[in-house]
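[Help] Beginner question about ligand-bound structures

Sorry if this is basic. My supervisor gave me a protein sequence and a SMILES string for glutathione and asked me to "get the holo structure". I don't really know what that means in practice or what format the answer should be in. Inputs are pasted below exactly as I got them.
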Amino acid sequence: MGSQDKLVLYTNHFCPWAHRAHIALAELGIPYEEVIIDLSVPRTPEYLQINPRGLVPSLSFNGEIITESAIVAQFLADQYPSHLVPPSNAPGGALRRARISFFVDAYISKVNSVLFGLYGAKTEEDQKAVGDKAVAALVKEVEPLLVDASPFFGGSDKLTLAEVLTGSFVLRLKALTAANVYPKAIWTAIEEQAPKFAKWAEAVTAHPSVTSIWDEKSNIERTIERLAKLRANA
Ligand SMILES: N[C@@H](CCC(=O)N[C@@H](CS)C(=O)NCC(=O)O)C(=O)O
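Answer (accepted):
No worries, everyone starts somewhere. Holo just means with the ligand present. The predicted complex, written as structure tokens, is below.
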């Protein structure tokens, strides 16, 4: 099935959204061609034909273009049935899909969106306030959803779509706090106040499908540059 399909992923390895597609493809073991899009220059007319929004990732599946990282990852998980997520008509499948979607929504909309505030936070005090708010949201919204993680979402011993859609962000949060590019205190507070999340994050960020395109050093360097630029303009 999979081997006959022609997949092309338009991507950039520094993009956490595009990284979601890489995690899905790695975990599913599907061969694909990769086209790196240079995001430092305007998109070419050719790429804008593929994705009029000009964003990465885009996936070409036998010539059909699919865009938006969550939709790309969900499509891959549905097209190639696996341990990532059950079909909606399997026993308990619809409920598990709902649980996964809620977890992803909680992490992305309640925690990750708050952390983006670090890019506009100039002073240490402002950065601490953002960190406190993100950790409080994590404790309230995400920690309770990991009660049965073992080590992955919902008691799974393998990666699930929940990790496919959040792993790239967790990887960056962990690495950037460890390097004190994001305040180190954020991770310390997570370990103290959200131990299930910390344990889950440990397993997620060690998983080869999550780390396959990850270049920690370059990501840290680029984030330092980006933070400096955005804070200078804030
Ligand atoms: N909602 C989109 C977000 C993708 C996105 O923001 N990609 C960024 C890179 S991380 C991008 O392509 N930026 C290009 C630009 O803004 O010019 C998704 O989930 O796919």
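A couple of things worth pointing out: The pocket of glutathione is lined by residues 15, 17, 39, 54-57, 68-70 (CB under 6 Å). The first helix runs from residue 16 to 28. Feel free to follow up in the thread.
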